[in-house]
Amino acid sequence: MIHPKSDRVIDARYLEPPEPFVKTMEALDTIPAGGKLLLLLFREPHPLYRVLDQNGYRHETEQVADGTFEILIWRA
Amino acid sequence: MQALLSFDRAPPFAAPLRFFITAPLFALLAGVLLLVEGPGVLASRWTPAALAATHLITVGFMLHVMLGALVQILPVVAGANVARPLLVATVVHGGLVLGTLALVAGFLAAAPGFFLAAAAVLAGTALVFLASAGTALFGVPTTSPTIGGLKLAFIALAVVVGLGVTLVLALALGWSLPLVDLVDLHAGWGLGAWAGILLASLAYVVVPMFQLTPGYPARPSWWFPWALFAVLVLWSLAVAGAAPLLVRAAEALAALAGMAFAAFTLNLQRQRRRARADATYRLWQVGLASMLLALAMLLAVALHPEFAEWRGWTPLFGILVAVGGYMSLILGMLYKIVPFLSWLHLQNLGKGRVPAPNMSKILSESAAMRQTASHVVALAGLVAAAVAPAWFARPAGLALVVASGWLFANFGLAYWRFRRHAREMACLAQP
After folding, report:
1. Which of A14, A43, A50 lies at the smallest CB-CB distance from B205?
2. What ipTM, to 2 d.p.?
3. Buried residues in B326-360 as b, exposed as e (16+ CB within 10 A)
């Protein structure tokens, strides 16, 4: 999936918990240095934010018109 | 990093679960009251038995589950961590159980002592909840419509409890207050602002998450809680200022806003990507349809006040909102939350070495569906009882006893299975 914010996108909008979390964690393990991951969800993933903070990742979240939260994740 | 599926600061499972297991018992008591008292419970909104039954459902069942669930889900939906969650849950749970029983005893026995005890315990319980959960919630930035809505709902809860405690004290101490207006405000803020805004704010998260639907569009999601809150403020000013035309206009606006939300959510459900219609889906369909009917009644009475002169209007409206609407929607959420929380806690107990059992081993879909059917039967019975109390009040009471007892059994068994798996996994996960 191509997205202007990142070429590595996980569209987890129609996945049941805990799949979005698991897929994001798996993808972070494979992301190259300096790379960014974009997660799409219809909610803000607060539990994921905590795990990201604890593991040295940064994130930036934006809600777009259709209600999707675009969460851009990169290593600090 | 997969082992990090531990929601590190999630409260222990016992924190919310105790609420979910005892809440059905209050709905069961409402059924027993209807079974014993019969048609008198539905004769008028002012009979002691009607007031007792109403509060067994709204405080005993609804508030019980809402506060218990919030301690658990505030960290998940808002990133707001309640300090010492198990202690808060213990105090709030104990306070709600004792306070509800005292309040119901006060109504049934018309005893000032019970009313004073209920006022003190329920006010104290609400203060503990609002101080702890409110501090956590208002400490996080408003980054989503859910967080914004929850903050407004908490303000509404303070208003509901303030009005409720004032009313109970007025009954106990014989204060001369405009009781009818205060009761209207108390009910409006409870069912409209607190429960309505709380439900919408959580629906933004749980409808797409549990039912795999599209999301709620961003802009309307942000303003809907504010719009509902503003209409309730307008309505309150109109009630206080004795401006009947403005009261009716505000009621019509509130009804239209609620109907728009319910219809939009039903349309989201239609677009879901899960083929199977599970208990959650069915319960939300029933809940939203029931809300639409109730709000159509509110709209009709705002346009033609004489409709409210029908004896069955208030019981029917109350049953459609509380039992058909909120209770169904709450049950729909619980049938996802309880198995998922069990699975999550078992997953953490396994420490990544022992996999947690499938969620259906804790609470099966067929058990949820059968109880859902009994809930719908109870709702149909109650609607019939509101129309023809002499015929249907006692059968409806019996149906509510069965549905609530079944719910208690479902959650009780889920907890028992969770404990059994937890013991087995703790042994297996020993290094």
Report:
1. A43
2. 0.95
3. bbbbbbbbbbbbbbbbbbbbbbbbbeeebebbebe
For B26, the domain range is: 11-419
Contact A28 B205 (CB under 8 A): no
Among the partner-chain residues A16, A47, A64, the one whose CB lies closest to the CB of B7 is: A47
pTM: 0.95
Each residue's pLDDT tens digit in chain B (431 positions)? 444 444 455 667 878 899 999 999 999 999 999 999 999 999 888 899 999 999 999 999 999 999 999 998 999 999 999 999 999 999 999 999 999 999 999 999 999 999 999 999 999 999 999 999 999 999 999 999 999 999 999 999 999 999 999 999 999 999 999 999 999 999 999 999 999 999 999 999 999 999 999 999 999 999 999 999 999 999 999 999 999 999 999 999 999 999 999 999 999 999 999 878 899 999 999 999 999 999 999 999 999 999 999 999 999 999 999 999 999 999 999 999 998 888 888 887 877 777 788 888 889 999 999 999 999 999 999 999 999 999 999 999 999 999 999 999 999 999 999 999 888 887 887 76
B173 exposed, middle or buried (CB, 10 Å; 0-12, 13-18, 19+)? exposed
Tally the domains of chain B. 1
Interface test with B, best of A19, A37, A43 (most B CBs within 10 A): A43
| Token pair in block for residue B349 | 């107990």
Q: Is residue B5 part of a domain?
A: no
Counting one residue from chain A and one from chain B, the pairs whose CB atoms sit within 8 A come to 85
| A9-75: CATH architecture | 2-Layer Sandwich (3.30)
A44 to chain B, any CB pair closer than 8 A? The answer is: yes
